[in-house]
């Protein structure tokens, strides 16, 4: 870790104001349970328990009636803020609680299988290079480009040699990310993750090869996969 960066705090920001409509459930997907804990609790516990994370900011919906009933809501590292109507707006709301010298580690609420190993790899790479970066996985499937006429037919296959699937956490200087998000939102740019805001402002974030089990729960069938991964991770910890 660079000496010039070793004294800066790393603060996790978790956008959790979405309703998870693709899960087709009555409650937001982050409150669905895997075992005894909600998805959000699994996610927050991983972040809280990492020694380099100073604080965790959770951006929740103004109508959220569940978060404050969770034991993790009263953890001294956790602060809740009111999120916005988009991921970018929620992240920006969380960033308002950070100091200018902080580093913001933004992580999806619905990625409960994150490992400390991946967090360490991201932190070490970013701090060594003194440049923001994201966890990502090289694309292994053949990727097809569809025609723009929505007929769901293939125009051609894409060369996947340089294609990566973006994941989280994504780690950037708090002030830089805040500035880029504000600019992108004010100019109505399409922002799908924090890296795309940095890219919009001319930046080129690092790609840090992460684990494939760090999945995002999006569809109902993802719950079974996440349950398996979390069970395996728990067994591995017991055997250490």
Describe the structure.
Helices cover 30% and strands 24% of the residues. It has helices spanning 39-48, 87-95, 116-129, 174-186, 194-200, 222-239; strands at 10-16, 33-34, 37-38, 53-60, 78-82, 103-106, 133-138, 143-146, 154-158, 164-173, 206-209. Helix 2 (87-95) packs across helix 4 (174-186) and helix 4 crosses helix 5 (194-200). The strands form three sheets. Strands 5-4-1-6-10-7-11 form a seven-stranded mixed β-sheet, with helices on both faces. It has one domain (10-239): Alpha-Beta Complex (Spore Coat Polysaccharide Biosynthesis Protein SpsA, Chain A). By secondary structure, the chain is an alpha/beta fold. The model has no long low-confidence stretch (mean pLDDT 93). Strand 2 (33-34) and strand 3 form a beta hairpin.
Largest sheet: 7 strands, mixed
Question: Can you list the strand order of the major beta sheet?
Answer: 5-4-1-6-10-7-11
Number of domains: 1
Based on CA atoms alone, the radius of gyration comes out at: 18 Å
CATH topology heading: Spore Coat Polysaccharide Biosynthesis Protein SpsA, Chain A
CATH architecture group name: Alpha-Beta Complex
Helix content estimate: 25-40%
* Poorly predicted segments: none
Average per-residue pLDDT, rounded, comes to 93
Count of alpha/pi helices: 6
Distance separating the two termini: 26 Å
Q: What's the shape?
A: globular
What is the chain-wise order of helices and strands? EEEHEEHEHEEEEHHEH
Structural class: alpha/beta
CATH superfamily: Spore Coat Polysaccharide Biosynthesis Protein SpsA, Chain A
Q: Output the CATH class name.
A: Alpha Beta
Compute the number of strand runs. Answer: 11
- Strand fraction: 15-25%
Family: Belongs to the IspD/TarI cytidylyltransferase family. IspD subfamily.
GO molecular function: 2-C-methyl-D-erythritol 4-phosphate cytidylyltransferase activity
Catalytic activity: 2-C-methyl-D-erythritol 4-phosphate + CTP + H(+) = 4-CDP-2-C-methyl-D-erythritol + diphosphate
Site (Positions MEP for the nucleophilic attack): 160, 216
